[in-house]
Amino acid sequence: MTTTTTETSRSFWTGRSGLIVPALLVALGVFLVYGTVTMEVPATATSPGPQVFPAIVAGGCFVVAVLVAIQLMVTPEVIDRGVDDDGIPHSGSVSNWRTLSITVGSVAVFIALLDPLGWVLAGAVLFWGVSIGLGGRRYVFDAAVALLVSSAIQIAFSAGLGLNLPGGVLAQIF
After folding, report:
1. pLDDT truncated to tens, each residue of the chain (174 aa)?
2. Quick one: DSSP state of residue 74?
3. Taking the model in full, what pTM does it have?
4. Beta carbons of 64 and 25 less than 8 angstroms apart
């Protein structure tokens, strides 16, 4: 009687492929820092000014990147894909293509609709689409929250930073 043991060798990277996300966040943070530092701020800009928001987002990118990297280093996400009838481990990627396609599609639709619809409506479509992509099933509630969030961002940019986001169709109506 012969027993076959299939031992898969595990490298350092096993379960740590998600480290690409912190790497992308660091790259985005560096890009935002560069853009913020090289930004030409007009003398008429009021405090807090146009450099504050990108600096906050860049700092958030760095903090989230560090936290995600620490989490993946301490507890790697090893996915057990099982074995076939011969005892050979299943291989291949484990990706959620539905979530990815809905999220990327939402960003593409947002880009296409930003000028004609304006920030409030296009931003609401973006947030609503991403919530669906991430598994939201309360469509009307999610749409209402998305509209609220995009409206709050419009108010924050206008009142807080003195910057106007595209008004689109709502600017023509009101």
Report:
1. 444 444 455 677 666 777 888 999 999 999 999 999 998 888 887 778 788 888 999 999 999 999 999 988 888 776 777 777 887 777 665 667 788 899 999 999 999 999 999 999 999 999 999 999 989 999 999 999 999 999 999 988 888 777 788 888 888 887
2. H
3. 0.59
4. yes
